[in-house]
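Hi P.,

Sorry for the delay on this. The queue was packed all week, but I finally got your sequence through. Input first:
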Amino acid sequence: MSAAPGRSQASSHRSPQGEGTPVSRAPAVTLVIGSGSVKCAAAIGVVKALTEAGIGIERVVGCSGGALFAAGVAMGFDAQRMTEVTLSTWTRQLTSKRNNRGLLQLIAPRLFGFKAEGFGLRDDAPMLAAFRAVFGDQRIEDTPIPLHITATDFKNGELVDITRGDLVQAIRASVSLPLVFKPVKMGDRLLVDGYLADPLPVSVAMKNGGRVIVAVGFESPFQDNVRSAGRFASQLSAILANNLLKARLAFQSAVHHSEMILILPQFKQRVGLFDTTKVPAIIEEGEEAALQQMPYLHALLSAERERAESVAA
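Then the structure:
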């Protein structure tokens, strides 16, 4: 996932030929990648389109499944590397190991001592191992491009913006799907999946000075045949997530002070949670969706550059 150079890109430079003449620099955006499981691989195509258009990334925000891809952008992974990461990590192996104690707590909470901080029906060891194999002991504050990973405070539902600490633990917190994986303890907070607070956290980009924001979001698929408790829960989750996404976007559009390009890739085929065989098509859809918005994005970047130059004059 080829991205802009490191944090120094956002700094201001002066021409040696004139004290007050700014040096021309490549345009850059803040990228927000929302929740969407394997569909978040569309962000690979979006970044590819931005790179080929000469547009860099000065900050990246990731939520839930998008946290994995945001981390790849922040680390400077190119498209081939990020595709490999997707195929090797986003597999059924993530949820393959049952958490027997969690199941017992569900069936007999009084007998086995139900505790929210330890409850999850799946063991997170395979997930942690997969993420650790990619990112090692990388810390968020040391990524080449500023990175924000969002999660939800289990106690009050607030959005939590994680900008420091172990990268793998932050991603793990952001993908703590309720009931499936146990929450993650960070400091005095108990964190669950970021999509519960905001499936497309554009507000984080705005609070951190993003002037031109590219937001890549995904609607959750509805179930065609609800014939099990699992599908019933998935349908309820999709209803809640999609309505929350629409409500948050409407609010941001009403009060925003930044320019936002919204990219909502439309997939020709239904994409399941672990449909990694469709990753090439998902990436292509992301690139095509970004290219459709490119003329408008160039216009916004030009207007922003003129605004910055007028302020500096």
